[in-house]
Amino acid sequence: MQVAATFLTKHLISSAILATFCLIVCEFSTDADPEGRHFNYLAFHNPPYDTLIRGPNGTFTTFGASLELVKWLSAKFKFTFNVSLVNQTLIEKYGTHEASFYQLINDKNVDGVLCSFYLTMDRVERMDFTSHTWSEGFSLIVPRPAEESRLFAFIGPFQPTVWMLIFISLFVFVGMMTLFTWFYNRQRWNNLGSATAIQKSVFNYFSSHMIYVINIMTNQGCQEAFSRTSFRLLTGVWVLCAMVLVNSYTGIVTSSLTTPKMKPSIGSLEELAASRDIGVLIRHDTSIGEQILKATSGVYKVLGDQARLHPDQILGDPFTLASKLETGRYAYPFLRTFAIAFVGNQYKKDGKCRFKGSKPLPISAGYFSWLYKKNSLYTKVHSRALMDLWESGLMRFWVNTQPTIPKADQCFADSKPRISRLVPIQLSDLTSAFLILGIGIGLATLSFVSELIFFRLNRLQI
Fold first, then answer.
1. How many CB atoms neighbour CB 273 within 10 A?
2. Helix, strand, or coil (residue 262)
3. Sheet of strand 279-280: strand arrangement
């Protein structure tokens, strides 16, 4: 009995080992060897990672990091491959990404797509995916803020509340000076016996005091001939107050007139949602575009609602998106490398920094994988190779050395505001002064015409 039990135990152990071995063999047997096989990949324009240039008669040229990746796999596994374009009719119907997915799923001659994609549940259910080939954060491409107009820069040194108190104080002070003058001269005015004459005298003194107060504030100087101590004390207080106000103003006005002040910059999705001048562009076939359009709350929903109000801001074609983005009226949330490339290309094209990339957005970094047909025999073997490729750093090297990413470091440097400029004051700095002069000339001309009309009417009545 003991011998039989021992034999049975050994038989069970041997069976378990054999079963385990068979499972392992079966598991690895699903990974077909790609050596000697031919693969067909779909390609589309995906700057700056992958560039596709169309030629005449349906010809095209493509280059980029994804093509380098396929070349690396081809050399490693000794297979051949060719690249074809995504069907344009499908692109117009579904958008670039969904069109490539449709062909990959339904066309038996297509094995994969020459691009890395962000994994969503929908994509995972429809296609096989490899280990990630690329990882990157997101940022905003926004127009660089323009310089604010300095037409009213002369108001800048004081807050509106200060200006309001200055004008109130000015009229109060002139009113007190007129009151004192009326009190000093009331006996003489009573002897005039004419209410009209008294009113004219009060008006003349009010005008004279107003000119005096304004002359003191503008450092022009003036004289008020009164020997009364109370009047001198009143004017002395005004002179002291005006000295503080004028010196405070002149100490800041030069900087206000000559230092460029930029409009508020957009650096977050919340600031973009609150902006009235800059709209949002969304690619409906990208992961972040889908998240914004499908959001039911938060800033994503606000941006999605704004885009839906203007359907031309929801796009699927990268060329159309780039053209609209170049107008400087929109912002676009996408991968950091795309932002760097777009800003650099615009600097190379225009010779100035028209755009900027925001700091990384508080969004989880995107991990991007290659997609193959569902239940493909080559997914796992390619996936293990792509993990080795990622760890080697070659993919990042291929992306960073793309000719489609020109350098424009000056567009990303944080420029510190300068206190003053070592150049002569320009006409644009003094626009406000000429505006005041123009308004003054206009009012004087209007007053002159009114006086002339009034004089002519009086003559006709006589």
1. 17
2. strand
3. 279-280, 330-335, 138-143, 355-357
Give the separation between CA 289 and CA 273, rounded to whole angstroms: 15
Beta pairing partners, 351? none
Distance CA 369, CA 130 (A): 6
For strands 355-357 and 50-54, give the pairing.
unpaired
Q: Which phi and psi angles does 52 have, rounded to 5°?
A: -125, 125
Beta pairing class for 60-64 and 282-283: unpaired
- C-alpha of 19 from chain center: 61
Tokens of 298: 């938060």
Work out the angle between the directed axes of helices 160-192 and 229-258 (0-180°, nearest 10).
150
For 4-49, what is each residue's pLDDT tens digit?
Answer: 334 334 443 444 443 343 434 334 444 677 888 999 999 998 888 9
CB atoms within 10 A of CB 116: 27
Distance CA 153, CA 160 (A): 13
CA angle centred on 287, ends 286 and 292, rounded to 5°: 100
* CA distances, 30 to each of 37, 328, 387 (Å): 16, 52, 19
* Per-residue pLDDT, 434: 62
Q: What share of the chain is helix, strand, coil (3-state, %, to 5)?
A: 60, 15, 30
Helix (H) or strand (E) holding 394: helix 394-400
Q: What's the rounded Cα separation, in Å, for the pair 462 and 459?
A: 5
Locate the DSSP E strands across 182-294: 279-280, 282-283
Bridge partner list, 368: 118, 134
At 62, the amino acid letter reads T
In 10 A of CB 4, how many CB atoms?
A: 8
Distance CA 113, CA 90 (A): 15
Q: Give this prediction's pTM.
A: 0.64
CA distance 116 to 337: 14
Ramachandran area for residue 2 (φ above 0: left; ψ -120 to 50: alpha; else beta): alpha
End-to-end CA distance of the chain: 151
**Pairing status of strand 355-357 against strand 138-143:** antiparallel
Q: Tokens for 103?
A: 């062909």
Per-residue tokens: 352:
């100035």
